[in-house]
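W.,

You were right to be curious about this one. When I first looked at the sequence I had no strong expectations either way, so I just let the prediction run and decided to look at it fresh. Below is the sequence, 85 residues in total, followed by the output.
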Amino acid sequence: MLNIYPAIFHKDGNSFWVEFPDIKNIESADGFVSYVSSDVSKYRKKVKAVKKTLTIPEWLNEEAEKNHINFSSVLQKALMDELQK
């Protein structure tokens, strides 16, 4: 789904910063107003979690739990590393 938001771009020296105001408060003395669009459905797919079931040896599970290892984090890192090969 494509959403459009008002944005005020401000110049500060050699850089810019952006403000996303309420629609009724769009006023700017030191910048310009433009509209920006964002497709949040693509972002939602990247942050939506899915549950997976996996099997590992019992001894490995015990050692990992003893060391307070976050299984989800380790699996995510391993999958990202594998996909970059």
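Here's what jumped out at me. The chain has a mean pLDDT of 83. And, maybe more interesting for your project: Strands lie at 2-12, 15-19, 31-39.

Coffee later to discuss?

I.
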